[in-house]
Amino acid sequence: MTTKYTPSVFANVSTESLGCDTRYAPPAPFSQCWYLCLHDPTKARETATSRPDRLSPRSRVQRVPFSHYKHCDYPGKCLGAGSCQPPSNILFMQFAPPTLVATSRHDCVHGYAQNTRRRSLSDPLARVLRPPKDETPEQRERRLADEHEAKKISDSIDQQIRIESAERKKTKADIKVLLLGQSESGKSTTLKQFQLLHNPATFSEERVSWRSVIYLNLVRSVRRILEAIAPEAEADSHDTDSESEAHSVIIVGPPPPDAEQQTTALEKYEYYSSRLQPLEELEERLMRLLSEDDEEEATHLPSGAQHPSWTALTPVRSPTAQRPSIHIDTQAQPSPLSPTLRSPLSRGSELSVRTTSNWKKAFSLNRKLKSTSPGTNELVGWWEDPDDPVHVLAKCSRPMIELWRDQWVQNKLKERRIRLEESSGFYLNEIPRITAKMYFPTNEDVLKARLKTLGVIEHAFALNHGNKKTNWKIYDVGGARNQRQAWAPYFQDVNAIIFLAPISAFDQVLDEDPSVNRLEDSLLLFRSVASNKLLGHVNLILFLNKCDLLKAKLDAGVKLNQYLLTYGDRANDYETVSRYIKQRFLLLYQQSPQNSDRDLYVHYTSVTDTRRTSTIIQNVRDIILRQNLQASHLLV
Ligand SMILES: Nc1nc2c(ncn2[C@@H]2O[C@H](COP(=O)(O)OP(=O)(O)OP(=O)(O)O)[C@@H](O)[C@H]2O)c(=O)[nH]1
Ligand SMILES: [Mg+2]
């Protein structure tokens, strides 16, 4: 029987007294050991989290409260010896060589000494563990009692490891799916649809948490309108026309306004901006509320400008990272703002969700909720709180409606080619409902809420089919350019990739790089995913998304051939355009050298449409399941 020792036995022994140095490694047959890094627990933890490849699957940190230790079973090489640099205190806690039979720490040391006498003579651990020569009966009794206690703790740790291992086996994902695509392609919305389909109760429960995001989306849409009608924006639009054209997006600016037009513009602008002034403060407040974070990592808003590479430095999260937090992305393009609406928090920034903390908890209105209604269990009461954002919104409801319905404003938006329906403009049509005091978000509201993803978010669910159960994990990634370096670690053992390409975006440019057309970026991104060697055996499912917006855009008279010269004089209707774009993607796929071992499935989607998307998701699910069964030789 192999004896295992608990770290507590050695916790008060320093490496100095052991004479242990970082070159120390257990002899080859003693290939397994526990070690404890007393000197620099943070470093030990960092190593465990940032270099998981160097740890065995059973590695753990913080299993014992007083410090950190890991388990290593690399034959002949103890991880501890190499991973902590001097003057780290590394303690080897336990040797469990396969040939050694030992019943106590004492025996183990002796057994170790006997088996490897030459090494053990100079072995610092053996020296320390050997009982003193002049041990009194009381000391011996105490030592044995200590050892007995240590063994109990050690056994309980082993038991815990066994339980966790069984648990891990149970929760190990059978199927992993990765959602890829550029920013705003609809990945998070697709993830929400998966949640809605597989965890409707949780989705429903969490709807209330989205209230603040929806409010913020609405307030920002209003701000965008005010920016568009601001007199200086008018001037800017004339100044920047040439620049816009250089970015291959054709923006034909309006003719310069005459004096009368200018007076109207100024009056209109002043009228609306003064009535909507409270929204400025509300926007800042919502941003602050959403960026509150109870986690270790700093996601709070800085007092001044953020470090430009902040988002680029976003750590790659492990695939188990699940809980997102909010932060403000200052990488987004700044937009021209009127002086009255300028604020250090909101200028040019987009609300993002990061995978580090529980943002839903952080800004869920549960904090303010006072009770649940007995019959429905629905949460009630936030409107009784005078600080709740709903009161400012309710106050500004009328001018917001007026602004949105004002034909002059609509014309201005048209002139400036601002299509709010492509972003959070959906809420502008719903102002009376959303600003009502007892507003509770619907499923559709949540699906349309825009929250940019940073890092990777995981959604796990189990699926029963017949008498078999499969565990699924879906990973939603940030699609902006500075987020894409985080994708690769997830390519390793993924079963399928759902790639989203927003085909309505042919006349738009990337937020992060206005010189790049969105459709072009999608095509290039798809090509690089399709030709990635790691993904050679991974089935690709292509969602040609935002078909509803494509239809609306074409119906409004926007011409594809103005942005995609190769389209030539083909018909500018939905059928022809969507088929043409699909062909472009297929061509790229066919050119990829990696296609012998996989398939491509293409769907036209509007992932905000729950009914259609759930059918597509079920279809996709069946395909992936079938492929997975085939791969595990259960079928065919
Ligand atoms: N009308 C319409 N809106 C859509 C569709 N798909 C997504 N959206 C909206 O587009 C916005 C962006 O969608 P997201 O799902 O957040 O995009 P994403 O790919 O996760 O973006 P990042 O997190 O930045 O990578 C959201 O407001 C969605 O509601 C669609 O098919 N039709
Ligand atoms: Mg997202």
Automatic annotation (TrEMBL):
Residues 334-347 have a biased composition (Low complexity). Keywords: GTP-binding, Magnesium, Metal-binding, Nucleotide-binding, Transducer. Signal peptide: none annotated. Mg(2+) binds at residue 453. It holds the Pfam family G-alpha. It comes from the Eukaryota. GTP binds at residues 447-453, 545-548. The lineage of its organism: Eukaryota, Fungi, Dikarya, Basidiomycota, Agaricomycotina. This is G-alpha-domain-containing protein. Residues 131-154, 235-246 have a biased composition (Basic and acidic residues). GO terms for cellular component: cytoplasm; heterotrimeric G-protein complex. Residues 306-333 have a biased composition (Polar residues). Residues 119-154, 233-262, 293-353 are annotated as: Disordered. GO terms for molecular function: G protein-coupled receptor binding; G-protein beta/gamma-subunit complex binding; GTP binding; GTPase activity; metal ion binding. It comes from Dentipellis fragilis. One of its GO terms (biological process) is adenylate cyclase-modulating G protein-coupled receptor signaling pathway.
